[in-house]
Specification:
Layout lengths: L4 E7 L2 H14 L3 E8 L3 E8 L1 H15 L3 E8 L5 H6 L9 E7 L2 H14 L3 E7 L7 E7 L1 H17 L3 E7 L5 H4 L3
Antiparallel strand pairs: 1-3, 1-4, 2-3, 5-7, 5-8, 6-7
Helix pairs in contact: 1-2, 4-5
């Protein structure tokens, strides 16, 4: 299956989250990327596939479970760095500048990370989603200082426009020990 699009639903209810996953998988031909509980008693369902199928699946779950929805997205033409960063498999040999974007929601963080890597020549290191984070999420990226600053600003703006930005940081010349704290 071609995965050029991602869709996510973040819910207040674990039971509704499991129901959402079922609805999404039965509605269209999509692939389940991630379905799990996240901190503070929330649930997230992340699917991939063709744009129309992902949109249809997300819409079907939202229409049925609107009472439990925290946030959703459909990202068409998702940046290919998103998949390894979500899985924790990004290979980064050396840190140049280090950018960090932190959000109150999983959905807005993934959208922000996608916007960040599409806006500048940077490499996404990791996307961490709400586990042992009090329901928050963050991503890390690296590249030249100006590119990292531009990428962080782009991603953070998208998150801030939703009112969900916790913080954004750019560290020029980070110590190499910081890489061991990631992934």
């Amino acid at each position: 299956m071609k995965m050029n699009s991602l869709g996510l639903i973040e819910l207040t209810s674990i039971a509704a989250g499991m129901q959402a996953a079922d609805i999404m998988l039965k509605t269209s031909e999509v692939e389940l990327v991630l379905s799990r509980t996240i901190c503070s008693g929330k649930y997230m369902v992340l699917i991939g596939g063709e744009v129309a199928a992902v949109q249809t699946s997300v819409d079907a779950a939202v229409n049925t479970l609107d009472f439990a929805i925290i946030d959703t997205f459909v990202i068409p033409n998702v940046h290919p760095d998103i998949f390894p960063a979500l899985a924790g498999h990004s290979q980064v040999g050396e840190l140049e500048a280090l950018g960090i974007i932190e959000s109150f929601s999983v959905a807005s963080l993934i959208e922000g990370a996608d916007a960040a890597v599409k806006s500048a020549n940077v490499r996404l290191i990791e996307i961490r989603l709400a586990m042992a984070l009090g329901g928050k999420a963050f991503c890390t990226l690296t590249g030249e200082v100006a590119a990292v600053r531009s990428a962080v600003d782009s991603g953070a703006k998208l998150i801030a426009d939703k009112g969900l930005l916790v913080n954004k940081v750019v560290i020029a010349q980070p110590r190499k020990e910081l890489l061991s704290e990631m992934i």
